[in-house]
Amino acid sequence: MDLQPPHLIGDCLIHIFTFLTEDDLINASVVCKEWYEAAETPWLWRRMCLQRWSFCNLAALGSDDANHSWKRYYKQRSHLENHMTQGKSGDYTCKSLRGHTGRVVGLVYLQANSSLLPDLSKSSAVVCSASTDGTLRAWSVQNGEKLWCSPVQNPLTGIIADEKKEVIITSDSTGLIKSCQGQTGQELASFSTESSHCKLLQFNINNDWFLIVGTRGGSICTLADLTLTKKSSLMVCDPFRADVLLVSPDKKWIVAGTTENVDLSLKVIYSESLTSPSEDDDPLCQTVPVRGCQAAVFIPTQPARLAIIHHTELRGNKALTVFDVSIKKMKYKTEIQVQQVESFSLDLNHFNSQILLEAKNSNCIVLAGGQQLFVYSLKGVLLASFTDHTMPISSICVDSFRVVTASQDLSLRVLTWKNDGDLESQYHLLGGSHTMSRGFTHVACDYSSIVASVEGNNGKDVLKAYSFTS
Q: Which terminus of the chain faces fewer neighbouring Cβ atoms within 10 Å, N or C?
């Protein structure tokens, strides 16, 4: 009986191999020459990559070997994620970034390694930190080296970054806002608000660049372009500090307000009213129908869905209410509609510390208060809760792969999302000696690294940079 043509045998093997896992496929490749050739088929590994990750970037490999690129990509990226999930000794390096002589008031990634475009051949993440010592510093996360330091100015109070344009924006204790070139730290422009402890929010609409500044007196000021040209101002919570500033995913809505007064409500503002103000009309604005905001966040996968933790009519009790924001145009006027979607009570009465709130997707929010971390659905179902820390959580970072919590107990807790949407607590990253430090204060992360600030007993804060390898 004649044997089947070789290409038919290979096609059958390739089809069978689609049912194998990575390890099984590698084991099958050592059986014989025919199995090896079938197991090395780029289509097989491309299929495995796209099944596991919704987006893959072959340029991340830094290789011209097209026949093995998909296999190498799968192995390197899966190994990197396993390292990030397990956190074993040798899976990561830890660098101490020293140089600040004051408190770190914030840190941001200027260049981050994205989960959509992971750089597997090398990683060149850059973090910038602002301090009360009056300096802004840029650091190489992997090398643990200082890249540049700004001239000393008044104590800094805030920092944000526009990673796309590689621009850093800071505020200081006198209300001076500065924009700096991220590669060198060179000042680009400045603007004085004459208000200490400003809240900063930056966003882009198409090719237009905007910065909104919340002041201590309750107003918000809109600045345009990297020249920080003033476009408009609006009072939102006089005389309390405007410490809540959010922009919706579709960039149509700005939410502003305060957490300092239980009788005040947040305001939703049509962003075009601030970025392109009319001389004849006031900004289009609407009050959110709940009082006493404690934390708020837009749902990232929805165009304009807002979740707010707020006080209820029973003082001391708290609830989470979800709203959809839209615009209604009528014959003679246009108005904003803030429509309630869901509302449920939260058992947060025993928390005296601040409440931290982040959103992962259209049906999952993460909140922290005291020593506990909670995951809720937007329907009010408690999906998970964790008490991994022995002291209050001071900062959280949430992305599509991990949740990282920073605590005053001088540890970071890493939790990872599973395929079914559950969150699983994994391991601690330690920050140093309790005799020298008081605990973590801020944390930020990209796809392959975590950076957090440690409050020093001597008043000199240190950054800890954890880099995972593939």
A: N
